[in-house]
Q: What sequence folds into this?
């Protein structure tokens, strides 16, 4: 059976280590990120399938990111594809948000 | 209802990560462009914190108390929840019943599909790589890590929610709960029993 | 164990509850909801879930129409993992789209 097309997310059955069985909950920004994703999918602005695909396309980088980092990355990909904002606009807004945190 | 929120942070400490900034920036751009409103975000956060996490236990308590409702829940999870007054939104629910012969456990190996409108957000272990890798292949060993031992004469059924359905486990009602009200029953139903990694106890 | 009734009605379908099926061995690139570990494995239709837009198309912004029939398929763990370290009676159940299934 060919293994060459298996992507990192398709991990069922792979060997793995012990499970951290404690629920570490969610940070505030993660809860807000979840609400953002949920609002957008409920309004059908993005589809869950598109976001899954964008996360899967991380390929080798899949394991470098944590769960909410992956979903945020995926959302960015899909929103850019659909033209809701440009990379330039996003970079500018991120700089503004960063400055706000730094100044606080 | 047993649901511990103490691990959710009210405020984040330390400098924000790149992705936190990215998420916040995307949200603000979309609000500024009128695509979504800040109120929508706030309202969804509230639903996920104050509503969804408490629903599962109430539904299962009702199923324990009412055998005919349990049957309807097993046949069509979403319709039964709707009958119970709960809109599961996008979740198409399949309820699977634990019996003395069968123990059920749920996973999403491909991402982290979970009946969020019934149980709230999935725990970090459910989304973890090691759970997603191992529970389909060695469920009994994984369950032991949660302190759950299933005897060999009980069948373990693992459900990988890999497509459009979402799953909840209907645990066995523990002995010693005869005559309890639904509210009392709901208080002993923990989230982990509804995913199938632990067993209900009174 | 009782056989569950059809979850939602599917317009036309190839398989019924109890049919023996095998998951196709194929490795198409892109977004698929059929994990690698189940491809080529034999199981039994446990229920008909209904007909849904194809996620493989939704992921790329297409409508996913016409809908595809989705089944829950029950596999013996020993069929999926030859070295499975548990009782013969243990099962693994997944949702598989009709176009990934063939008669066994």
A:
């Amino acid at each position: 059976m060919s293994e060459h097309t298996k992507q990192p997310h398709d991990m069922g059955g792979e060997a793995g280590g012990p499970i951290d069985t404690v629920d570490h909950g969610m940070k505030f920004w993660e809860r807000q990120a979840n609400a953002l994703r949920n609002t957008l999918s409920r309004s059908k602005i993005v589809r869950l399938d598109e976001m899954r695909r964008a996360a899967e396309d991380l390929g080798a980088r899949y394991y470098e990111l944590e769960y909410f980092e992956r979903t945020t990355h995926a959302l960015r990909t899909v929103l850019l594809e659909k033209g809701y904002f440009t990379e330039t606009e996003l970079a500018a807004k991120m700089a503004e948000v960063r400055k706000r945190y730094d100044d606080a | 209802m047993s649901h511990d929120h103490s691990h959710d942070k009210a405020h984040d400490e330390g400098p924000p990560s790149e992705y936190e900034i990215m998420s916040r920036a995307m949200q603000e751009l979309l609000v500024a462009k009128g695509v979504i409103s800040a109120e929508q975000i706030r309202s969804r956060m509230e639903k996920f914190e104050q509503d969804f996490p408490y629903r599962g236990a109430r539904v299962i308590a009702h199923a324990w108390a009412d055998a005919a409702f349990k049957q309807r829940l097993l046949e069509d999870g979403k319709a039964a929840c709707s009958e119970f007054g709960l809109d599961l939104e996008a979740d198409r629910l399949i309820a699977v019943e634990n019996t003395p012969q069968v123990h059920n456990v749920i996973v999403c190996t491909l991402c982290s599909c979970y009946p969020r409108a019934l149980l709230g957000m999935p725990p970090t272990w459910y989304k973890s790589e090691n759970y997603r890798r191992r529970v389909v292949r060695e469920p009994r060993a994984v369950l032991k890590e949660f302190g759950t031992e299933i005897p060999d004469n009980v069948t373990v059924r693992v459900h990988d929610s890999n497509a459009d359905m979402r799953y909840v486990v209907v645990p066995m009602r523990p002995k010693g709960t005869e005559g309890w009200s639904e509210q009392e029953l709901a208080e002993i139903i923990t989230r982990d029993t509804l995913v199938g990694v632990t067993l209900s106890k009174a | 164990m009782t056989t569950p009734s059809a979850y939602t009605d599917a317009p036309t379908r190839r398989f019924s509850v109890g049919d023996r099926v095998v998951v196709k061995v194929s490795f198409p690139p892109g977004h698929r909801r059929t994990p690698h570990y189940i491809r080529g494995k034999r199981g039994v239709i446990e229920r008909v879930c209904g007909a849904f837009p194809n996620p493989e198309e939704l992921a790329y912004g297409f409508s996913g129409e016409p809908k595809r029939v989705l089944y829950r398929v029950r596999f013996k763990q020993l069929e999926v993992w030859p070295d499975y370290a548990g009782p013969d009676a243990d099962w693994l159940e997944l949702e598989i789209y009709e176009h990934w299934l063939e008669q066994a």
About this structure: The helical segments of chain C are 55-58, 77-80. The mean pLDDT of chain C is 91. The longest strand of chain C covers residues 42-52.
